[in-house]
Amino acid sequence: MDRAACERLDRACPLAPLRERFSLPEGVLYFNGNSLGALPKTAAADIDRVVREEWGQGLVESWLDADWFFLPRKAGDAIAPLIGASAGEVIVADSTSVNLFKLAASLLRHGKRRRRIVTERGNFPTDVYILEGLVDLFDERFELVLAEPATIAGSIDDDTALVLLTHVNFRTGAMHDMAAITAHCRAHRVPVIWDLSHSAGAVPLALNRWGVEYAVGCTYKFLNGGPGAPAYIYLARDVIPAHRPVVTGWFSHANQFGFEDSYRPTDSLEKCLVGTPPILSLRAVLHGVACFAGVEIDDVVRKSRGLSGLLIRLVDERLARHGFVLASPREPEGRGSQVSFRHPEGYAVSRALRAAGVVTDFRSPDILRFGIAPLYIRHVDVWDAVDALVQVMATESWRAYAAAPPDPVT
Question: Which of 74, 145, 182, 269 lies 20 to 30 Å (CA to CA) from residue 46?
Fold first, then answer.
């Protein structure tokens, strides 16, 4: 394998033209789409138009004239095919953390009288913090169980009240078998919430086919919705009627503009809304999801695995003596769309790579992460990134950052 071979792979790639849908700075190799996706070229002009025309000229009339009022459902319906859901099962609102709280609190409040809440040790910290807060909120009626990844199924029994899992681990990229775990939970009549933040738009998802009833996810990573873009909630169609929200607001009321004194939830998925939606961010989400127009998710997954495999192979071949240890599963079926390496100087190496124009990130204590966004990353980008990493290690340029205090954002 050489750079010319990578160029040939790019010329033959069916997704190669999609890179032109994004605004990417010259001279930068961007491997951080698993933290913040790239800017869709159509987004900036449209948001400018929304500000100047729909807000500036249309004013309050734009809630109907420009369909602002319906954007949470419109954005959700656009996301649904990417996660294997149907129209009317996904709605965009709030943040991932808030949506996790909303779902988990409702399921615990209205569920069976069971005690144990199961999540994964090493899960994204916010997910765990939310569960800790709920244990406190319910006066320690529940017990939080942090299970090792390999023992998740064995930790779920008939005393389990709720399971909350992130499909793809944020540090290592290890991916759970969602279908198998969901089936196991259903056998024990245990609700399970899946966090899809590192999955949607990058790995195969079939929520309807796998029997998933509850899920949340963000839109600013592989879905390219922009910094701080609102998240989404998925409820399977058959659980929507019985779902009873515990965080309620006027956007989930059955008669929103009747301004009744008491709360009555709507019968639709809008019961997952609370307050006024963020219109500018929702418009950006629509542009991010539109970047997948005409794309087969199988092609996205195939390219993701090809790029990831190439990165692993090149690091194995060219950097073995420099102490990099693969932290992600080597088998592509068990890995999300990222590759993580352990290195004792992972933070300093990540800083040196950024100085060389390769944007990766670092996760404590020693993880160097390469996000693989198949819509805009090329095979030559992988080759050039490894070239830069070889130079960082050969010249020891990372030493300039070894003693520096870490940035507040790594």
Answer: 269
220 in active site: yes
Which listed residue (195, 361, 366, 381) is catalytic? 195
Q: Which of 221, 271, 283, 351 is catalytic?
A: 221
User: Which residues 6+ apart lie within 8 Å of 181 measured at CB?
Assistant: 152, 153, 163, 165, 192
Q: Under 8 Å CB-to-CB from 60, ≥6 apart: which residues? A: none
Among residues 171, 369, 378, 401, the one annotated as catalytic is 369
Which of helix, strand or coil describes residue 19? helix
Which of 213, 220, 215, 269 has the alpha carbon at shortest distance from 241? 269
Phi, psi (rounded to 5 degrees) for 370 = -115, 110
Q: Quick one: DSSP state of residue 221?
A: S
* 303 flagged as catalytic: no
pLDDT tens digits, 147-160: 999 999 999 999 99
Q: From the candidates 220, 251, 341, 370, give the one annotated as an active-site residue.
A: 220
- Residue-by-residue DSSP string for 49-87: HIIIIIITTTGGGHHHHT-GGGHHHHHHHHHHHHHT--T
pLDDT digits (tens, 9 = 90+) for 83-99: 999 999 999 999 999 99
Alpha carbon distance 305, 313 (integer Å): 12
Mean pLDDT of 380-404: 96
Task: Give residue 410's pLDDT band: very low, low, confident or very high (50, 70, 90).
Answer: confident
Q: Which residues contact 231 (CB under 8 A, 6 or more apart)?
A: 92, 93, 94, 95, 96, 98, 99, 197, 216, 217, 218, 219
Retrieve residue 142's tokens.
Answer: 């529940």
